[in-house]
Specification:
seven-stranded mixed β-sheet; binds magnesium ion; 2 domains; binds NADP nicotinamide-adenine-dinucleotide phosphate; six-stranded mixed β-sheet; globular; Aldehyde Dehydrogenase, Chain A, domain 1
Amino acid sequence: MGSVTTTDVINPATGAVFTTVPSLDPAATDAAIERAQRAFPAWRAVAPGDRARLLRRFAAVVDQHLEELAELEVRNAGHTIGNARWEAGNVRDVLDYYAGAPERLSGRQIPVAGGLDVTFHEPLGVVGIIVPWNFPMPIAGWGFAPALAAGNTVVLKPAELTPLTAIRLGELALEAGLPEDVFQIVPGKGSVVGRRFVTHPAVRKICFTGSTEVGKGIMAGAADQVKRVTLELGGKSANIVFADADLEKAAASAPSSVFDNAGQDCCARSRLLVQESVYDKFLSLLEPAVKSFRVEEPSNATAEMGPLISAGHRETVASYVEGSDLAFAGAAPQGDGWWFPPTVLLAHSTADRHWREEVFGPVLSVLPFKDEDDAVRLANDTEYGLSGSLWTRDLGRALRVSRSVETGALSVNSHSSVRYWTPFGGMKQSGLGRELGPDALLSFTDVKNVFLAMGD
Ligand code: NAP
Ligand code: MG
């Protein structure tokens, strides 16, 4: 059995508690994992075409509830309504994309003497997905859609701060006809539910997104059972602006590349590197773009940014700004809720704390560079390597710098967001493995090689 307590769910735009959700203890977590284990043989045996059809139906049910899911996220996470609609749509699209996988999960036939050699991509069993609070819906979908498509059953732990959309997605899966216990939401604390995913032997893989610190602990814990892990961790991505770039375009787009989702984005371009010959000009173009960035009640259609997730997080973000060299800042609502204005800080060296550490808030650090080598050196002077952008009209330079910056994803003359059909993940301490795109599915499987002797 196991007992269940409850956690308060708070609207970060007002600071008010508006509902409570269950928080499971270790025994209740074990019970969920064991139900997932029992559901696995029948789920892996569902014919590929039928599994595909169920996932497509799940996508369609998500689409029918898009507005409801988006509104839940506005309330629970303070996301702007525009972003929240995109996020719910992303769950639908990722389900649709991986719904194409079951019938295409082919192995190989490898030539051998005396028989037939074939490979199979076998599902792993129960997959545990641990989700952070910053993008509750997309990050859940990037794990559960390919995991289910490959024939695994899933237990998913949402962040304690933002459990509502995950819980609703679990209900919608059942409404779409997924069998009981194939996809279960297990709300509770990381130190309880998340930890049990790592230690319970029936969970064969952990798909974790969150801080580098917790991710390292999960990787260490997984070693005990040689449990598979995919880790999507922190970032401190660079936005590199060369003197020959379209400076107006680069300056107009820089604010959203770091302030979107109030900067609570592992891909935030939070380090701005500007070539010194255009440094002053670029900052003068950036200032009006930052000051006009609209921070307001996130359910307003015009909102570009809402509040931070919690009071504690706002204190952490503020600690990076206090005592730092402020270039300029935008405006934010006063009063209730965890509001913080878009803020631009001047870095004096790469040792500055706000330049080195992931702030995870609407704070941009700026530093000038001399030339291409200097830009690459400064961009790579970090333990992270998740994302980044560079701006130049020189095609050769765009290619050279793209190949030299140690990061899992880069955009040239844009700040492309994550596309579900291209790979996403980090180099260095930003992560291990890749999500999304054509290959992610295979990380939810193990290859089995079978040799059949022909006989005489
Ligand atoms: P976090 O503290 O690492 O938490 C992430 C998730 O792990 C939450 O569900 C949390 O549960 C759980 N957790 C905490 N301790 C655990 C443990 N000992 N064992 C198992 N699970 C545990 O991160 P956060 O504060 O929520 O999110 C911010 C961080 O996530 C940032 O550093 C950001 O860069 C990173 N992030 C990375 C990506 C990416 O794709 N690379 C995406 C989003 C966020 P609780 O409910 O108890 O907190
Ligand atoms: Mg945390």
